[in-house]
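Posting for a labmate who doesn't have an account.
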Amino acid sequence: MLIYQIVILLLLTAFLGLVIRNLRDYAPLSARKPARSEKVSVLVPARNEAENIEACLQGLVAQEYANLEIIVLDDCSEDDTAERVRRRMTGDPRLRLISGRPIPPGWAGKVWACSQLAKEATGEWLLFVDADTRAQPALVGSALAFAQQTNAAMVSAFPKQITGTFWERVALPMVHFLLLTFLPIRQVWESPNPAFAAACGQFELFRRDAYEQIGGHASIPASFHDGLQLGRRIKAAGLTLRLFDGTDLIACRMYQGGRQVWNGFTRNAYEGIGSMGALIGLTVMQVTLFLAPFGFLAAGALTGAIWGWVCAGQVELVYAIRILLARRFGGLSMVWLHPLAAATLLAIQWGSWWKSRRRSAIAWKGRAYAGSLEPTPSVSDLQRDM
């Protein structure tokens, strides 16, 4: 038992080193100007976003980068989303509203909306942003400059996650925990393997020719995880995918309340993981390294076993990782609830697998998907086909 606990301690030390390295590589952007004034089409799919769309557009029309157009697609909303966009359009020729067509069978709503938006865009760059995001004035110019400087075909960022309720504060920080604890960030742009891909659908910036080369959103019609799936396709095509820390430039309240957290994450978590083998491997790592040490610590304290002191070191390393991430991305006050957060993450991942296996109906944004959507390509499929 002592040897086992020492091995876990050493592994956690290695993971702490990876997190420190990732925090350097996953860097925030300083305000910068693009080398070339290429036109950017900012594309916003909006379905039932009356509560969000005006604040979203307020940030987009305030961009310091001038050579852009903003196109909002009203995706058959059942509220007054379109009317709120029309009110905001007054006097701003950059802003345009289009009406989405009814969703055809076999498509997920967002990718259908994004596919329509891309056809309307006239820019050399396509920037897809969700309607619940809030952009800072330097966002578009800084992201475009970064893409130009790194010769990236796709640039993505994870926004600052705004949280309100208890379950949001527990679950949302685990997005950055998964990203920066288990993935060597530098490999996202250095490795040609599509397995080393990460991207967020809330912010996707594409060079137009690259977007068209991979088939755009039409290549993944059934996906609920478009950022990651398109990132994998970019890498499979031999193009460059880059990430930056969007915390200072874009914010989003992804979900409101525990029910939305569960429904939202279980909708696409298994798709993001990719396979049963990957899910099992990830589960073993999460349980062995980031959950079991708390149980062993309690058992060691009760029995007085010498390996209990090693478990104390393991728990300290787990909290060191969470504190480092919380200092950058927020949520420091909830770090002490890590065991609950880790258990919640596991429940979401396996709940998502169960929904996928049962082909359970998915309800989202006022639409019900009957569970008959075709699966998206796996990493191995991409490597074989592209």
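Reply:
Got it, the structure tokens are right above this. The CA atoms of residues 80 and 237 lie 40 Å apart.
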